[in-house]
Amino acid sequence: MSRPLPFTDANRKQVASLFRQALRTAFDHTLKFDAYRAETLKIRAQFEANKHISNPEELEAVIRKTKEKLAEWKHPDPYIPPCRPGGTKYERNIPPPNEEVVPGNW
């Protein structure tokens, strides 16, 4: 496996993806906005604390540790917005089909 080099576009995208995953995981665990906001500030502080890393080995270790932490904290029943696939309202009021529902000539 190739080691990530610091300050590359691929690395920035990976860190941004991990940050978004952390925010989603925090939202899954705390659906109330005030508690969620407090968690987002903690997450941001953790990411900002590691912003200075320029050693590729240290960077790889931090990314691996972050992935492990996200896997550990993954919610068993994540929040799905109601109208998204898998949500409670997804395709609730779909229009009726144009063809005959029961085949045959009655």
TrEMBL record:
It comes from the Eukaryota. Residues 77-106 are annotated as: Disordered. Residues 13-71 form the Complex 1 LYR protein domain. Keywords: Acetylation, Electron transport, Membrane, Mitochondrion, Mitochondrion inner membrane, Phosphoprotein, Respiratory chain, Transport. GO terms for cellular component: mitochondrial inner membrane. The keyword Transferase does not apply. It is a peripheral membrane protein. InterPro entries: Complex1_LYR_dom (IPR008011), Complex1_LYR_NDUFB9_LYRM3 (IPR045292), NDUFB9 (IPR033034). GO terms for biological process: mitochondrial electron transport, NADH to ubiquinone. The keyword Disulfide bond does not apply. It is found in: Mitochondrion inner membrane. Belongs to the complex I LYR family. Mammalian complex I is composed of 45 different subunits. Accessory subunit of the mitochondrial membrane respiratory chain NADH dehydrogenase (Complex I), that is believed to be not involved in catalysis. Complex I functions in the transfer of electrons from NADH to the respiratory chain. The immediate electron acceptor for the enzyme is believed to be ubiquinone. This is NADH dehydrogenase [ubiquinone] 1 beta subcomplex subunit 9. The lineage of its organism: Eukaryota, Fungi, Dikarya, Ascomycota, Saccharomycotina. The gene is Piso0_005458.
